[in-house]
Amino acid sequence: MRNRTLLAAAALLLPLLAAPARAQTTPLPQNNAAEARQRFRAESMREAMILLGEWRTAWESHNVQGLARQYDRNALLLLPNAGTPLQGRAAIEAALRTQLPQLGSIQFRLVDSEVGDQLLYLFQEFTLRPAGEAADASAPAAAAGSSLLVLERDTGGTWKIRAQTFHVVPGAAAATTAGNTAPAAAASVAH
Questions:
Q1: Is the pLDDT of residue 113 over 70?
Q2: Minimum mean pLDDT among 15-19, 139-143, 159-163: which range?
Q3: How far is CA 101 from CA 60, 63, 66, 90, 177, in A?
Q4: For 35-188, CATH number?
Q5: In the predicted model, is pLDDT for residue 43 greater than 60?
Q6: What is the CA radius of gyration of the chain?
Q7: Does residue 163 contact residue 148 with C-beta atoms inside 8 Å?
Q8: Which pLDDT score, from 0 to 100, does residue 189 have?
Q9: Which residues pair with residue 121 across a beta bridge?
Q10: How far apart are CA 143 and CA 149, in angstroms?
Q11: CA 67/CA 58 separation, integer angstroms
Q12: CA-CA-CA-CA torsion for 175, 181, 187, 188, nearest 10 degrees?
């Protein structure tokens, strides 16, 4: 009878003793969240750079309709040296139709970026050169400064410009012309 009691006790304790060993051998799912975030950020930045390439091509070729299509229908745009911002795609298109030929060629340099699920922020420096002098880097810059670009994902999953502001920094155009390729706007861009 004593053997039977010991066997019964052992049979009851055996599952309890095996549980820690089984827990140690069970594979746990890997957490690839950091890797997935990096992939998402890289893909979002790639999409944003494609949009900006199309935007700049439309700007340089004075394609007002192509440029206006890059903006969300309720977008906000503050052009260089403009007193008031433009609100809505129709207002942006109307203003660009008259102002784009006078603004000239534009170049950007990325300073910082922030990528979220639905919004992407680009802090940039810009240089405007008078029309016809785009290829001549030694030509004096018409204006230079900092720019904030906010992109938002639309319902189709593509990025649209939600807001874009240009802040002209006095003296930055002269610094750019003097051989400094980066406008003096870097100090005015907050991180």
A1: yes
A2: 15-19
A3: 9, 10, 15, 18, 21
A4: 3.10.450.50
A5: yes
A6: 29
A7: yes
A8: 36
A9: 114, 150
A10: 18
A11: 5
A12: 80
| 133, two tokens | 């002098």
Tokens of 62: 């004075």
The tokens for 100 are 């784009």
Side chain identity, residue 187? A
Least Cα distance to 109 among 149, 57, 154 occurs for: 149
SS (H, E, C) the chain: CHHHHHHHHHHHHHHHHHHHHHHHHCCCCCCCHHHHHHHHHHHHHHHHHHHHHHHHHHHHCCCHHHHHCCEEEEEEEECCCCCCCEECHHHHHHHHHHHHHHHCEEEEEEEEEEECCCEEEEEEEEEEECCCCCCCCCCCCCEEEEEEEEEEECCCCCEEEEEEEEEECCCHHHHHHCCCCCCCCHHHCCC
Measured between its terminal Cα atoms, the distance across the chain in Å is 79
Q: CB count, 10 Å around CB of 34?
A: 8
